C-alpha cells in the first residue's frame, strides 16, 4: 500500500503555479547583478526552498559571494556575512555574554549567526572549533550563550563558500560536518559571452541596486508547498536505489566501484535527495516529481557524501564519475 496516496494532480499543479510565481521576479532581480551563473542561482533557490544549507566551491572571482548577497537583498530578510579567518573565535560567530558595570549584570550580545541568511565566506579558513560552532547552529537551529538557549528565526540558511585550490592556511571541513550541507555545488567559469557582459557591466561604472521583491512569508509558504508536492512510490524507490548503490554497489552489478569507495550516503542523503527533487519540481512549476528531477540534483546532494579510497584518488577518480556510473546503471522508473 502506497503511504502517499495520489492527490488531485491538476489542482496541485495549479496551486504550485500560483505559489511559485514569485520566482520569476526574484530571478530577474538577482540577475541584475549576476550575469550567467544560472546553475549557481538555481542551487541557492533549491537550498532556500528545501530549507537546506548550501556549500559553494569554486576558484575566487566567480561571484559566489555576490550571488548570495544579491539573493538576500532581493528578499526582505536579515543578512550577515562572516569572513572566516584563522584567528576567529566561536563567540565571534555565535555571540557572547557582556558585563554591564552600571547594572552589574551580564547581558547577551548576539553574534552574526542571528540572521535569516548567513554568508560563511571561506569557511575552511578558520579552525575546527569555529566550524563546529556554526555547524551546530545549522543542525539544531538554535544557539546557547551562557545558560540561555535562543531559537534561530526561520528561514535560517547558511550559504558557505570555500576555495578548492588553496590548501595553505586552511582547515578542511571534516566529512561529518560537510554532511550538514544539503547541497555542495561546484561553480565553474562563465562562458565567453557572459564574461564579455561582465566586463562591460563592471567597467561601465553603472552601479546596480537590488531591491527587496519577495518577503519572508512568501518563502515560508513556498517551503510548505514544496513538501506538499506529490512523490510517487516508484520515485521513492528510485531515490533509495541510488543511495543504496553508493553503499553496496555490488547489488547493482557495480562491483568495480566497491574498492573505490570508503563509505556512501547516509539516510540524510536520501532525505536531501527527496526534498531537493521536490524543490526542483517546484522551480519547474510542477506539482509532482519525475525521475529527471532526482537526476538533476543527484550530483549536488551526493558529491560530498561519498568517501573515496586511496585507490580512487591514485587513479584520479572523482565522486562525480562514481555518481555518473550509478545513475547510468540504476533503473529509471
Search tags:
333 residues, Helicase, Ruva Protein, domain 3, five-stranded parallel sheet, two-stranded parallel ribbon, 14 helices
Describe, in plain words, how this protein is organized in 3D.
With 333 residues, this protein is α/β, with parallel strands linked by helices. The protein has 2 domains: 25-214, P-loop containing nucleotide triphosphate hydrolases (Rossmann fold, 3-Layer(aba) Sandwich); 229-329, Magnesium chelatase subunit I, C-Terminal domain (Helicase, Ruva Protein, domain 3, Orthogonal Bundle), CATH 1.10.8. It is built from 14 helices and 13 strands. α1 packs antiparallel against α9, α10 (233-247) packs across α11 (267-283) and α12 packs antiparallel against α14. The longest helix has 17 residues, at 267-283. It starts with 8 loop residues before the first helix and ends with a helix.
CATH level-1 class of the largest domain: Alpha Beta
Number of strands: 13
Mean pLDDT over the residues: 85
Report the order of strands and helices: HHHEHEEHEEEHEEEHEHEHHEHHEHH
What is the helix tally?
A: 14
What is the CATH topology descriptor of the largest domain? Rossmann fold
So what's the overall shape? globular
Within CATH, the superfamily of the largest domain carries the name P-loop containing nucleotide triphosphate hydrolases
CATH architecture of the largest domain: 3-Layer(aba) Sandwich
Report how far the terminal alpha carbons are from each other: 18 Å
Structural class: alpha/beta
- How big is the Rg? 21 Å
Fraction of residues in helix: 40-55%
